[in-house]
Amino acid sequence: MNLKIKNATKYRTADLRRFFEAGLRAYGAQRDRTIEVEYSRRAGYVSGCASIGGTWIKLRLPRQHVQGSGLVPYDTIPERQMRHVAFVFAHELQHNLGHRHSGGSAHGGTLTHGEYDDVGSWWVDLTIRQTPPKPTVPREVCTQRLVEKRERRAREALDRALSDLKRVQNRVRKWQRKVAYYDRKLALAAGTSS
Ligand SMILES: [Zn+2]
Predict the structure, then answer these.
(1) Are 146 and 52 in a shared domain?
(2) How many CB atoms lie within 10 A of CB 120?
(3) Owning domain of residue 140
(4) Contact between 37 and 6 (Cβ < 8 Å)
(5) What pairs with residue 67 in β-bridges?
(6) Domain total for the chain?
(7) Which of 24, 42, 107, 183 meets the CB 3.0–4.6 Å disulfide criterion with 29?
(8) Per-residue pLDDT tens for 82-110?
(9) What distance in angstroms lies between residue 25's CA and the mean position of ligand 1's atoms?
(10) Ligand 1 centre and the CA of 84: distance in Å?
(11) pTM of the complete model
């Protein structure tokens, strides 16, 4: 008996496994099943599909969760949405267990088992957490690093300019000495010839 989870999301596979196993236990279903998990396109939207009388389920979970007026991208699925996830999973599981919608359509109509109110409480103590992305370096640090880099470059340029200045000062002193030496020579020559 093997529960295979193909997880294409950042939701923790261990959390998903605990959740699915609890659901399978609650409905007395075999663990031998393949459950694919991927992101749904719409924020806060949960959907699924399943083989009728088979062992395959696909569950689409939202990447982001609606919270107040904004979206919470990486977090634990909020409790009210966990109820919805549990409902969708239970619904898809009922298809695996051979139940069809009335009217014969794949979806639409009503499914007599796994309705929202019947979802039970097997899921209430469970959490499905989403691994957060690697933290990005805060903007202030980036700016600070850029300033540090520019300060270092300016300091190096200043050091080069100061050593240039020293070389020029040495040359000035050297030629000042030479000029003074020849001036003295000329003065002496003028003294002896007169
Ligand atoms: Zn259905």
Answers:
(1) no
(2) 15
(3) 136-194
(4) yes
(5) 70
(6) 2
(7) 24
(8) 888 999 999 999 899 988 876 655 554 44
(9) 20
(10) 14
(11) 0.63
